[in-house]
Design brief:
The chain is of the alpha+beta class. It has 3 domains: 194 residues, Jelly Rolls (Sandwich); 123 residues, Orthogonal Bundle (Phosphomannose Isomerase, domain 2); 89 residues, Jelly Rolls (Sandwich). Helices cover 25% and strands 29% of the residues. The strands form 4 sheets. Strands 3, 6, 7, 16, 17, 18, 19, 20, 21, 22 and 23 form an 11-stranded antiparallel beta sheet that branches. Strands 4, 5, 8, 10, 11, 12, 13 and 14 form an 8-stranded antiparallel beta sheet that branches. The chain has a two-stranded antiparallel sheet with strand order 1-2. Strand 20 and strand 21 form a beta hairpin. Helix 8 crosses helix 9. The longest helix has 21 residues. The chain is globular.
Length: 465
Amino acid sequence: MVLNRRCVGKSFQTPPARKKRYTGFRIVNARITPASRLMPKSEQLPVDAATLEEWDRAPYPLRVRGRVQHYSWGSTDAIPELIGQANPKHEPFAELWLGAHPDLPAHVTIGSGEIALNRLTEAAGPVLLGERAFEQFDGVFPFLMKILSAAKPLSIQAHPNTEQAESGFARENHAGLDLDDPQRNYKDDKHKPELISAIEDFYALRGFRPLDELGRTVHNMPELSDLVPDGTLTHDRMVELYVELMQLPQLEVNRRLIPLMQRLRTANENREFGKADPEYWAIRADDEFSRDDDKDRGLFSVFFLNLVHLRPGQAIYLPAGEPHSYLEGTGVEIMANSNNVLRGGLTPKRVDVEELLSVLTFEFGKPTVLELERDRRSGTRARYVTPALEFELSRVQLNSGERDVAGGTRGVELGIVLDGKLKIDSRDGSNLDLERGQSFLIPYGIPYVMSARETATVFVGSVPS
């Protein structure tokens, strides 16, 4: 193939304050990634054109350096301990991004230099992804993988489907909003189905509770019982009720939530709530997000959504329009390559209740908890089965001395070592020595062998084959 030279050499240095950016081959005006979130110029070692052309002709596995998002809800220890980075200021490390989203792309090492994964995809996408995936996903790396570690509840949120994302992104572009404008809802034109796999006890809200359960809950809450006088709810009435509560004027939100939270706090003094109780999370969220006697309307959702406790190895899948919030814990997350989040409360970030309500699917029932299923192609791999076209998440577990042999039929793979030490050998004789917290990228169609030097656990994101 002909290498895209605009992505190599000097052009890979920190760009000017504004440029044209390609998004799915459509050009939009966009502000570049803030310089504070890029490597300092003195540390950047660009991949020269000759080295990249050589890799393009004969691709091999690459070492990956993830990038950290320091959102306020992040824990201060899990990710630093994983990647071996000191955190003397106890800064929140919320997410370790392993992907090519332009908001914070990972860097990959080729030769003695580094290149951002989105730039590598632009320069050598058919080789990296394979021709079929390159065409299917419009030349964009199809998934984003993360380590997520929450010490505090995340926002009540949902993600749009493709049609909604394309429409919202175009609308905000037409309005002249920069990509980093705080009034923006849509960072790109992609949908964002996602999956999170717990690597420790993980708590989340996911989807609306069953109608009969919701009816009883609301009827038994003195502050809300007038809304469901007979304790029963139809689907349509439940939708109307949730929309009504989320759109209440702030004075009415306070009128209902102030006495509710006072009652819960009194009850908590007599019988302390635990993490299996919605009341526990409501009190924690109230402490974190309510301000100046104004209650956060996101508290209503704590009682309307299913509370899920994931044990290590369990996962939940979130399609478009599914309301959710991650409450506490650390997990491996994988999603379509998007950063579109519509929020309805419990956050200092932008809240747009109307836009959130417009994308919700309003399905009611118990959530499905996913378990790993053995991959028939490998005796050492297990995977989560979802309907997502962009991604699949697998876990590889190897005892010391054990090997995982991957044939050349797999799509592009992005992995992270959670425990242990291992070596990756590919057909051309290249190899990577990896240990806990380190990541790697396997281009499309490259056979390789993963050998454990000590008992190892690896999570691998890939395009479903």
